[in-house]
Amino acid sequence: MYKATIGIEVHAQIKTATKMFCGCKVEFLAEPNTNICPICMGEPGVLPHVNKRAVELAVRTAIALHAKINLKSIYARKNYFYPDLPKGYQITQSIPLAEGGYVEIETEKGKKKIYITRLHIEEDAGKLFHTTEGHSLVDFNRSGVPLMEIVSEPVIENEKEAVAYLRRLRQILRYVGSSDADMEKGQFRCEPNISVSKDEKRGVKREVKNLNSLKAVERAIKYEISKQTDSLEKGESITQQTMLWDEKKQMALPMREKEGVTEYRYFKEPDLIPLLLNNDIIEEQSKAIPELPTEKFNRLREEYKIKGEDAEILVDSPEMAEFFEKAIKSGCSSKYAIGWMTTDILGELNKSGKSFGDIKIAPNHLARLNKMIENKTINMNIAKKILHNILFTGEATEAYIKRNNLSQVTDEGEIEKAVVAVIEENSKEVERYKGGEEKLFGFFVGQVMKKMKGKANPGVVNRLLKEKLNRR
Q1: CATH number of residue 450's parent domain
Q2: What's the burial of 17, exposed, middle or buried (CB within 10 Å: 0-12/13-18/19+)?
């Protein structure tokens, strides 16, 4: 039986207005090479200076990860040359800001802690753009943007655990406000290293670089586990390599032989003194930490009696979880609130390509819909229709109902006419129903609702249909 061992390095951009060691703006999609200066371009005679805000947010993250913060950490130069790293070295930390800690995830076997090795601060490199003509262009705007590198212990066993860990880690960064962690913008980049072995001894690992979606992480890990297992089955040796994921081919391709630590020629950054922290900074950042995703997940399940998968959807966005709780405080039942949010609202957002922040309705819109269903002003189908149509306008529910004449019909005489008409128009189906095909009852309900343009009270429709069909 082969066993996979997985560790993951995450590079998360810290949410600051300026870069790590200079005053250049951090700005996504700015005109190429406009947010640069002699410091981030590594010109001779310049001196870096530490971004205090980046340090504070990194400390806040470390606290949220239950890590031990080092009151003294050391900046170092990691020497290697890439076209998108103008200095020819990267300023990072040889003694990290924090060590240890964990992220708790839910697995098929229950709760599991994914332990953290370290969290250190460093600067990002620039970005390469490859043209169809075979040219490579460099944008240095990202060079020097502050990063947190968060390295997990190799305790992840499969791609599902990896995705659960990354999802929860990304949530934590967003909750504490240390990173927007937008994978599409390159603010949260994942590099899993995967090894496969047949015993407790760890196999030769391969690292897959710069994955920028959870789907890509899942596919890359699954591919590497399968590939390495197949190689071991055939008696082939596995070479330690850095791989690139090809989304089109759905396979990992060799990029280079994996470097060792000695090849980076680390030495202390001569232009920066050690970073010294005190307990006041740690206490201040501790106070800024809100209820974290795991605690919120457990509380939502317990307090509102909702399913784990529903609670997971809510905690993925602090705004969404807050909206849910406000809807309930406004008078909406948890059953209706969770159903509308996870199915109707998210469905509309996915279809439109918009985010939760784009919706215009307030939590009390859900409470009003709930109340109208209970007093039989509208039925569930109409409630869903209203919700879909006012989601991005914020129009009052009563105003929308009045404008579109959507009040529910409860008059039994009017509904009975529709029921009789449907029975007379579908004599063959009636005979089949009487012959034992009871599943056809749903067909009759649908036909009556169609005649009533979806506005009939479902309870009255069901009762009258049963009476008429059974009498026949």
Answers
A1: 1.10.10.410
A2: exposed
Contact 20, 123 (CB under 8 A): yes
Nearest C-alpha neighbor of 387 from the set 337, 335, 454: 337
Element (H, E) at 347: helix 346-352
- Of 168, 158, 258, 173, the closest CA to residue 217 belongs to 158
> What are 87-133's pLDDT values in tens digits?
889 999 999 999 999 999 999 889 999 999 999 999 999 998 888 88
3-state SS string for 237-261: CCCCEEEEEECCCCEEEEEEECCCH
Distance, CA of 442 to CA of 71 (rounded, Å): 68
264-280 as b/e: b if 16+ CB within 10 A: bebeebeebeebebeee
* 117 and 195 inside one domain: yes
Same domain for 172 and 190, yes or no, is yes
* Residue 119, helix vs strand vs coil: strand
Rounded alpha-carbon distances, angstroms, from residue 64 to 58, 262, 362: 10, 32, 30
